Amino acid sequence: MFSSLELQQKVQQLFADENFLHEPRQLYEPIAYTLSLGGKRIRPFLLLAATDLFGGDIDMAANYAIGIETFHNFTLLHDDLMDRSPIRRGQPTVYRKWNDNIAILSGDAMNILAWRYFIKKQHPNLLPILQTFEQTSMQICEGQQYDMDFETRDDVSIPEYMEMIRLKTAVLLAAALKIGALAACAPDDDIQNLYQFGINIGLAFQLRDDLLDAYGDIATFGKQTGTDIKDNKKTFLYLQALEKADPSQQQLLTSLFKTQPDNPQQKINQVIDTYNTLNIRKDVEERIAQLHSQAATCLDSIHRPDEAKEVLRQMAAKLLDRNV
Amino acid sequence: MFSSLELQQKVQQLFADENFLHEPRQLYEPIAYTLSLGGKRIRPFLLLAATDLFGGDIDMAANYAIGIETFHNFTLLHDDLMDRSPIRRGQPTVYRKWNDNIAILSGDAMNILAWRYFIKKQHPNLLPILQTFEQTSMQICEGQQYDMDFETRDDVSIPEYMEMIRLKTAVLLAAALKIGALAACAPDDDIQNLYQFGINIGLAFQLRDDLLDAYGDIATFGKQTGTDIKDNKKTFLYLQALEKADPSQQQLLTSLFKTQPDNPQQKINQVIDTYNTLNIRKDVEERIAQLHSQAATCLDSIHRPDEAKEVLRQMAAKLLDRNV
After folding, report:
1. Based on CB atoms within 10 Å of each CB, which residue in A147, B68, B130, B136 is the most buried?
2. What does the pLDDT read at residue B223?
3. Model pTM above 0.90
4. What is the C-alpha to C-alpha distance for residues A284 and A280, in angstroms, rounded to an integer?
5. What pLDDT score does B221 carry?
6. Which of A250, A224, A227 is nearest to A239 (CA)?
7. Any B CB within 8 A of A119 CB
8. CA B196 to each of CA A235, B179, B191: distance values in angstroms, whole numbers, following the listed order
């Protein structure tokens, strides 16, 4: 078994050893650039940790780890283009640094490149591994579409929102774990529980993200606080606030979420004041704790020694209690 | 063995039977729309014909046929967006009918959907089939990038152009044949020859396309004649003309290919007059005939009875002698 630190180092090494630069440069430079920006590399970490949990060979699973991170970065590249987000991880996004067409085509190539890593070698579980990857990839597109649909809808419910973030965020964390377990030929029931652990962690992770946008500190979080409010993004906080609000608060929130002021600080303050009045932060913290507890139950039910689960238990705690 | 007509009907039936419409609608409608526009369905036809050539079960290869056509249509969807082409097969393209973001995301989903068809079932040759599909997909991105790079370059050589169209067009026709042959567990040397047959046909097919753009009839070809000239696209005709031109003709061509007149007919006429003076049409016809002959040699060397190759021989002739 490997420690968290050893797995993290393994993941870093995988990407350090890989050469993403080929000809034509204009196609591959944005890919190498995107993958060099780092990020937390959560998905490859989870994948290798799952392989290790079931006594599998993490070197055999390494290609899947690179593949899933490559796919994740492809989705960020195209999402940034669609959302017109100029900055990612403190650096200009691909469509800004190059142009829209380069972002479209290099993203397409990254999507394909992810598959290359999945099909480098034969594996007894190759077909279920590929099917998991394909289904998950498609679900992420569906989640992104729901997210875009929600922008123009005024009647998004909390269950609809939870389903959207399940598709857009949770399934890829869960699939990373499942693929890691499949690579180790783990038993079916354990794989199901590990997947469900990942779904719960993923949902909680996104709710933590929503919370940090409103209550995080830009110095530690690295993102501008209040961006979701500025962009009228209907996060869990907003939907929960709408549900608890009296008619005048509802009126205030819905009208504020139709504005795009040049200087948004006053709007952000007004929305956060309303969230505070309605105790939204506590509601979200409770929902995160509940999902965390459900995740722990899933992890507990897996037929592996308790100490072997420590890496995943720590990772879950780190993802959900993070300030960044 | 199936006749050409039977294979064509089989391909039509495959797409008629498939339901591409799922939720969310905004994601899947553009996919169903794109795949409903028809087209010649050359790639799935070639794939099934190759399976049949080696006595394979075409029903077992059907998913690969759908997958390769889905992938091909994904590339058209994103190419039309990048090239800002408003019309495809007489209908508005996805980015025009919906918008850019819908075109990006539904294209991404189509790319993934293609993989779904490739991994539906186990197959003894699954890994080489998937590796062929992945390599080919990536080569097509590379070809599209070279095509975009060439727009801003003044020094494109004919070998560079041939390599670009090999990547952008020929490899997918060749891969369709190779995958069909792999699905039938054909011998390696026959697969190589069939692939090379496809490359030669693919190159010739693109040269025919270049020729038809300048000399085709809009009524039969379905595209506006002279579009490449209007758009300053450096086709084989242009590069060949530059090579044969005297300094004053070179000067005329290069300066005309920097203009974007509102009414391009005069420019088109001037360029075609120059092509005519330089006998470019004959040069291209000769190159096509040469590639056709090389393709025939590849097909001849495959260890199958001559009559079994008739479907592919006819298809090659149809693709290369077409007016449309």
Report:
1. B68
2. 60
3. yes
4. 6
5. 57
6. A250
7. yes
8. 54, 13, 9
**How far is the CA of B21 from the CAs of A20, B27, B28, B111, in angstroms?**
36, 9, 5, 16
Q: Is A146 on the interface with B (CB under 8 A)?
A: yes
Residue range A252-293, pLDDT digits in tens: 999 999 999 999 999 999 999 999 999 999 999 999 999 999
- Provide φ and ψ at A17, rounded to 5°: -80, -15
Contact A111 B108 (CB under 8 A): yes
Q: Kindly determine whether residue A148 and residue B23, on different chains, have CB atoms separated by under 8 Å.
A: no
Rounded Cα distance between B193 and B63, Å, is 24
- What domains sit in chain B, N to C, each tagged with a CATH number? 1-185 (1.10.600.10), 187-324 (1.10.600.10)
pLDDT less than 70: residues of chain B: 218-224, 323-324
CB of B288 closer than 8 Å to CB of B208:
yes
> Residue A295 and residue A196: Cα distance in Å, rounded?
7
Structure confidence at residue B132 (pLDDT): 98
**Token match 């075409």: residue?**
B58
Which H or E element spans position B28?
helix B25-36
Average pLDDT, chain A: 95
Closest CA to B97 of B117, B122, B80: B80
Length of chain A: 324
Helix ranges restricted to H, chain A: 4-17, 25-36, 42-53, 58-83, 94-97, 100-118, 126-151, 158-165, 171-183, 188-215, 218-221, 227-230, 236-244, 247-256, 265-277, 280-300, 310-321
Length of chain B counted residue by residue: 324
pLDDT, residue B32, reads 98
Chains A, B: CB contacts within 8 A come to 99
Contacts of A112 in chain B (CB under 8 A): 111, 134, 137-138, 141
